């Protein structure tokens, strides 16, 4: 089997500050990755959490007893540097999933990723996309034309990495360069792989032109994954690239547990159902319900969770059917999750980065116990 055809896995750590010790979740997920033979460990780039902080309370979800604040996200590049220092034995690949193209100047992103790549001895992955409103607009970062900003940012990063220390200039509406210098060298001739979080038609074309991996983060059924992958590969061919050289990846949200009853309790939990606010109105409509924020609501890209009070979120969560939760999460026992993810594999997926949402269970003990079947899932997926 070729390396590109081997099915690989990664874990995304939510990178929220826990109780007990500041690196508790990093230690736990690093151990899970090693025990489950995962290839990589990712962290997100968020200032604001995906779930409204108003419901991040122990009475709604067990995780709040261990992680008291929904929005206490660590800076991802600092966190990845710390993890890299602890990564000498397992030597996981380290990725950001994914960073904003507009909130961070692309020259700074190019510097951070190149630094991590050198210090981790060639194991850095630069996940990048247009970002979300919640991490930009509230902080004074313009939110108009996010895809155009993404394209300009990516071109800037590529130009700096390829400059070989020569002064470079570039006209750009958003990120112009004027005799800019970039001298961090490649690691043994390599730069970090660029994984593009692409979903819409324009972003899929960009992934085909520039990506080392296509890395969608929002849920989509397996047939839609195949269709979008074909668009990425067509764009790669049109750009004169080898379409099969682009790694088909995806971020998948998982709910598992020791028993079917535990799994069902998590599916019906406030946290799991409130997560549905991050999902587009189109997916809601497929389950016969209208998104409470409107029939055309795009989902996480435009959600401002910090504006939603507890009563509002609870009322919205009641509208989420269990079938919708099972659509945007991969739920079940290890064998059932393996079977579900095999559907994506059959549509082209070769790299699954898993996010364990089992700690949404109202009981912290049952949520933490789900790490046992989650580990079994990682081991099963290695055989796909």
How would the blueprint of this fold be written?
Layout: E1 8-12, H1 24-35, E2 40-43, H2 63-66, H3 76-85, E3 93-100, H4 106-119, E4 124-129, H5 146-161, E5 168-170, E6 177-180, E7 193-196, H6 201-210, E8 213-214, H7 222-238, E9 247-255, H8 260-267, H9 270-274, H10 281-286, H11 310-317, H12 322-328, E10 330-331, H13 334-346, E11 351-356, H14 364-369, H15 371-381
Parallel strand pairs: 1-2, 1-11, 2-3, 3-4, 4-7, 7-8, 8-9, 9-10, 9-11
Antiparallel strand pairs: 5-6
Plain-language structure description:
It is a single chain. The chain is α/β, with parallel strands linked by helices and 384 residues long. It has 15 helices and 11 strands. The chain has helices at 24-35, 63-66, 76-85, 106-119, 146-161, 201-210, 222-238, 260-267, 270-274, 281-286, 310-317, 322-328, 334-346, 364-369, 371-381; strands spanning 8-12, 40-43, 93-100, 124-129, 168-170, 177-180, 193-196, 213-214, 247-255, 330-331, 351-356. The strands form 2 sheets. The chain has an 8-stranded parallel barrel with strand order 1-2-3-4-7-8-9-11, surrounded by 7 helices. β1, α1 and β2 (40-43) form a beta-alpha-beta unit. α7 packs parallel to α13. The chain is globular.
